[in-house]
Design goal:
With 221 residues, this protein is of the alpha+beta class. It has two domains: 13-152, Glutaredoxin, CATH 3.40.30.10; 172-214, 2-Layer Sandwich (Antioxidant, Horf6, Chain A, domain 2). 30% of the residues lie in helices and 20% in strands. The chain contains seven helices and eleven strands. A five-stranded mixed β-sheet has the order 5-4-3-6-7. Strands 8-9-11-10 form a four-stranded antiparallel β-sheet, with helices on one face. A two-stranded antiparallel ribbon has the order 1-2. Helix 2 packs across helix 4. The longest helix has 16 residues, at 156-171. It is elongated and about 60 Å long.
């Protein structure tokens, strides 16, 4: 069975650059982003970890915790963090899992269950499928899964945009259209009858019988 949106995120215990964590306890009542890397000292991942550090305040403003992962030990992570600071000019102030036993990578089906051996001897190509982003809600359910190739750096501004949508639609009975950004108009979900939609959102635009458009109910403009 593959992990899907709506599934409970597998819980785990792990060593990180900021000490041991129990994942569900670590999330607590927050949202969380878990993003994984095939190996330390890889060029694309270096830019990603650095950029994530630069926009960490935006995640914190939304009540979102950040957790990195790489299939290498913590001492290598610590040396890599120094490189990231040198190259990207940002301080990595969020924990990075040392997934040397491949436990988390296998739990989240980024590596086959049969994977074994010494993590240090594996190459980035051996772990090339460890390139995922998981957004997890306070209910510990998986809300988003993104999978990237090693040659394409991830767009974490898009992850923030999706979190804005997820947090809005968790509170209001709406959906967000293509290219939506916080404060723009949204779509009333099909489960809301017209009379109730008017009570909740006021009058709505109706370009087609199945499309009802209203202002962002969060009040953000």
């Amino acid at each position: 069975m593959s992990i899907s949106i709506g599934d409970t995120a597998p819980d785990f215990q792990a060593e990180t650059t900021q000490g041991p964590i129990s994942f569900h306890d670590w999330i607590g009542d927050s949202w969380a982003v878990l993003f994984s890397h095939p190996k330390d000292f890889t060029p694309v991942c270096t830019t990603e970890l650095g950029y994530m550090a630069s926009i960490q305040p935006e995640f914190e403003r939304r009540g979102v915790k950040i957790l990195g992962l790489s299939v290498d030990p913590t001492d290598k992570h610590s040396d890599w963090i120094k490189d990231i600071e040198d190259v990207q000019g940002t301080t990595v102030d969020y924990p990075i899992i040392a997934d040397t036993d491949f436990n988390v990578a296998k739990l989240y089906e980024m590596l086959p269950a049969s994977t074994s051996g010494d993590a240090v001897t594996r190459t980035p190509a051996d772990n090339q499928t460890v390139r995922n982003v998981f957004v997890i809600g306070p209910d510990k359910k998986i809300k988003l899964i993104l999978v990237y190739p090693m040659t394409t750096g991830r767009n974490f501004d898009e992850v923030l945009r999706v979190i804005d949508s997820l947090q809005l639609t968790a509170k209001h009975r709406v959906a967000t259209p293509a290219q939506w950004k916080q404060g723009e108009k949204v779509i009333v979900t099909g489960a809301v009858p017209d009379d109730e939609a008017r009570e909740l959102f006021g009058e709505f635009e109706r370009p087609k019988p199945y499309i009802r458009i209203v202002p962002d109910p969060s009040g953000v403009r």
